[in-house]
Amino acid sequence: PEDARNNYLDKLEVSVRFWREKGGCLAKETIMKLKRLNIPFKLGGTSGYRTHKLPVRMEYLDDIDLPEFRELPSYKRMCICILKNGHCCKYMGFSPNKQEQERRRKMMDEYRSYFNE
Fold first, then answer.
1. Which one, of 74, 91, 71, lies nearest residue 28 by Cα?
2. pLDDT tens digits, one per residue of 28-86
3. Predicted confidence band at 15 (pLDDT cuts at 50, 70, 90)?
4. Parallel, antiparallel, or unpaired: how do β-strands 42-43 and 24-26 relate?
5. Angle 67-72-75 (CA atoms, 0-180°, nearest 5)?
6. Which of 50, 89, 96, 110 could make an S-S bridge to 11, C-beta 3.0–4.6 Å?
7. What are the residues facing 47 on neighbouring strands?
8. Who's near 47: CB < 8 A, 6+ residues apart?
């Protein structure tokens, strides 16, 4: 459906922009593995997050064969979200936004009324 398609495209666009401009925080061991695999990335100095990990800016990959697969940006992760029918894209690290939370709350309230009668 068009709504689902647009939702996934929006989430993918946000994620691609995030990894290009801000970067995700990765452990030093993961960064070393990326270097060994000759995967291009830019290492940032500090992060606004409270973590010992370092910010890494990089482009989306088709797939990557590392145990830290879920921490790295790849189109395969996006495909898994779609196959799981995960509209919130939790598998990619997203949490439900305000509109999604409100929609879920309304549905829960509606169905709760059916069972409380």
1. 71
2. 999 999 999 999 999 987 777 788 889 999 999 998 889 998 899 999 999 999 999 98
3. very high
4. unpaired
5. 110
6. 89
7. none
8. 25, 53, 54, 55
76, 69, 100, 87: which is closest to 11 by C-alpha?
Answer: 87
Partners of residue 43 on adjacent β-strands: 56
Cβ contacts of 5 within 8 Å, gap of 6 or more: none
CA distances, 107 to each of 15, 43, 70, 84, 112 (Å):
27, 43, 30, 20, 8
Q: Is 61 exposed, middle or buried (0-12, 13-18, 19+ CB in 10 A)?
A: middle
Which pLDDT score is estimated for 52? Answer: 85
Residue 52, both tokens? 């010992």
Look-up of token digits 């069972």: 115
- Alpha carbon 42 to its chain's center: 19
Tokens coding 14: 């946000």
- 8 A C-beta contact, residue 22 and residue 56: no
d(CA 17, CA 55): 14
pLDDT bin (cut points 50, 70, 90) of residue 117 is low
